[in-house]
Write a structure and sequence with these properties.
By secondary structure, the protein is an alpha+beta fold. It folds into two domains: 213 residues, Cytochrome Bc1 Complex, Chain D, domain 2; 27 residues. Helices cover 48% and strands 15% of the residues. It is built from ten helices and six strands, in the order H-H-E-H-H-E-H-H-H-E-E-H-E-E-H-H. The chain has a two-stranded antiparallel sheet with strand order 1-2. Strands 3-4 form a two-stranded antiparallel sheet. Strands 5-6 form a two-stranded antiparallel ribbon.
Length: 246
């Protein structure tokens, strides 16, 4: 009984951690890991903008190429950084000691971030950066307060600052609260294009968290088909064993 309860609590931990993340509003996102084009775009964006600091060390380049319908040559030319090959894991290119000196801590591996934090949290995080002069890198985040990293995708999204309004609280005092954002620098993408880019990255990281999900539906069909055939043989075997018993 204790083992059952412990297993149940462990299954809830990712959701509890997300719920305890400061109560920030999360935007809902719908991803489809069977959308090959979205996976390819997400892999390219992740490789170009995220892999310099963050790794997905449980994923191999060769597996990524096979699952995403890419050739070895395409992956080596467009995705793999440095001298790595398709047989290597998807490690970041920044030495851990330098990263710790620059950011105060080593950037985390993102292999299971979509599973541990949720897809909605990750999507909201990618869209949640805003200018904040009090932070070391000049930005903060709506779902990760006092974030310790720069806005890696600012060239795509642009830079925005919060807009505040004054409201009267229950104590009768006036307070300033954040009331949306306004862009001070436009990015190379339109807002809808950046929304899609963020969703593509979430799609790719959702796939990386459990690559077997791509094959599971097909495998399930084969298993059900096998069991159906086995049922026919089992039925006739049962009739043969019990035919002399009245």
């Amino acid at each position: 009984m204790k083992k059952t309860i412990a297993t149940f609590l462990l299954a809830l931990l990712p959701g509890l951690a997300t719920a305890a993340g400061g109560g920030a509003h999360l935007e809902e996102v719908s991803v489809n890991i069977h959308d090959e084009a979205a996976l390819q775009r997400g892999a390219k964006l992740f490789s170009n903008f995220c892999l310099s600091c963050h790794s997905v060390e449980f994923q191999r380049w060769r597996r990524t190429a096979e699952d995403l319908g890419l050739s070895q040559d395409q992956v080596e030319k467009n995705l793999i950084p440095g001298d790595d090959t398709v047989n290597d894991m998807m490690d970041n290119v920044m030495p851990a000691e330098q990263a710790a000196n620059w950011f105060g801590t080593t950037p985390p591996d993102l292999s299971v971030v979509a599973r541990s934090r949720s897809e909605d949290w990750l999507y909201s995080y990618l869209k949640g950066f805003y200018l904040d002069d009090s932070r070391p890198f000049g930005v903060n985040n709506t779902v990760f307060s006092n974030v310790g990293m720069p806005h890696a995708l600012w060239e795509l999204e642009g830079l925005k600052k919060p807009v505040y309004k004054t409201v009267t609280g229950e104590d009768g005092e006036e307070h300033k609260v954040r009331d949306g954002f306004e862009y001070v620098t436009e990015g190379s993408m339109t807002h809808s294009e950046y929304d899609r880019a963020a969703r593509d990255i979430v799609t790719f990281l959702s796939y990386v968290g459990e690559p077997a999900r791509l094959e599971r539906p097909t495998l399930g069909v084969w298993v059900i088909g096998f069991l159906a055939v086995l049922l026919v043989f089992a039925y006739f075997m049962k009739r043969e064993f019990w035919k002399d018993i009245h």
